[in-house]
Amino acid sequence: MAPPILKLDNIFLTFGVTPLLAGASLQVEPGDRICLVGRNGSGKSTLMKIAAGLVEAQSGEVFRHPSATIRYLEQAPDFGSFTTVQAYCEAGLGPGDDPYRVTYLLQHLGLTGEEDPSRLSGGEARRAALARVMAPKPDILMLDEPTNHLDLPTIEWLEDELSRSRSALVLISHDRRFLEKVSTATVWLDRGIARRLDRDFSHFEAWRDKVLEEEEQEQHKLGRAIEREEHWMRYGVTARRKRNMRRVGELQDMRAKFRGHKGPQGSVQATITEGRESGKLVIEADKITKAYEGRTIVAPFSLRVHRGDCIGLVGPNGAGKTTLLKMLTGQLEPDSGIVKLGTKLEIATLDQKREDLNPEETLAHYLTDGRGENLLVNGEQKHVSGYMKDFLFQPEQARTPIRNLSGGERARLILARIMARPSNLLILDEPTNDLDIETLDLLQEIVAGYSGTVILVSHDRDFLDRTVTSTIAPAVPDAPDGRWIEYAGGYSDMLAQRKGAADERRKAEKAAEKPKAETANAVETPKGKGKLSYKQKFALDNLPKEMEKLQADMAAREAKMADPNLFTKDPAGFNRLAGELEKLRDKLAAMEEEWLELEMLREELEG
Q1: Are 40 and 20 in contact (CB under 8 A)?
Q2: What is the pLDDT of residue 526?
Q3: Domain boundaries 1-69+138-199, corresponding CATH code
Q4: Which CATH code is given to the segment(s) 281-489?
Q5: Where is the segment annotated Disordered (predicted)?
């Protein structure tokens, strides 16, 4: 085993009264790829900052190898007085580092380097900060929420880049799929203690549940042991005084341990307040378009959204997801085409920029709209402090200004407000940003069980796969041209359908080339004879019958797929039928082309 290049041992840190870190440890060896997980507020970012030397622990040992280089990606990068992104990134290079590496990373991250740092969007700022910390190829690369504000193509590129990197990695992220692909070890920060599992994140949840179950069993055993000792104290035969005092001391220690046990942080307990039932047709868009400065954002696009649908919007930054979402919900007029909203709609919206939050407002005021101490949730009056507990806020935080909350706490606060309001149409724009795994699980359950309609924009592949019934994506993924296509199922289903369609197109092209070659060869043979060959005549006579049979097969499959409940009941069967239908269409097109060429040849020879 290689010696560690970074080691934190028995780290303690307290803010206020409650210890944030209570003996946490972390060890990083060359080649490690560690994901650091835990609830919002468990101290993940703080432990990473201590490791990077940006925060000092109150006690404990910190060892960093003298020759090891460390780079830390913070959630809110400071651009200082730099006038260009290129200058900001190059300032992170050390002696002997390759400056071309900055140019390479900026190009792949979609930046030129000439941008003014003060005018960058959230996504552009995150890309610039990534280029700065990755360019030196440090011995240890620490990334705090690196996928926030990044689009899917960039996230997938980052996965590949980190997989090739020789740097040891320590990652904090809410993106399950990203952690599964990049990590090889998992450190769980829970109640101030760090536990390590030398397996990737895909094994974390089963391991965590097993640890908590064993802990509960140990606590139960301790309680039973205390009961036995207390019974002995009351009714046992008196032995030597020295022995009695020893057992009294042991009993006191057991009681202290039992009382001092702090169970795992509770999970968010909440259900969404659903409004009255909307009309069956929620949104109908007919050939809507949008363009800005000569660039087509949405080419003619039509969509029907029915009550109960859950639709995901995906695509690279700048493709027009938010623009399309605003047109579908009536917030933005299309250049052409019509959008009709259904009846009885009650819309609740989660905006990715969290613009609804006033940093000076208190949590209680925000949740109640300043209307006293109570709010109505699912028809019941609840005190704001009790409702806040459901979302893991302490009662004393009721008078806390929103500016004091972390990113994850702000996300939870917005969810708390949305869930208290009656709704039948949820609009979620990047809802997973800053949420911990457990709150993400709750959000997935809410979306999956919501009887209303959901439209969401997300770059979280796992969240999309677990929630949506259809996915809208650009027709050309790498270079969006305004054309959008709706695919059945989640993100993985969309990729499979794209791949299947591409494979079938290639097969159809090859199949179409083969009849052409055979026909071209045959054209030369019968020229002098003035008639078709037996093989050509047979094909000309039988192709119409085969095409008619194909059309009947296609109609049968289309009739089955017309059942609106088929995808929900049998998604695998729906996808199988869609694939078969695509193959039949390609085969029919090849037959029609072959028949047309033979018919033209016949007319030429007979004429």
Answers
A1: no
A2: 42
A3: 3.40.50.300
A4: 3.40.50.300
A5: 498-528
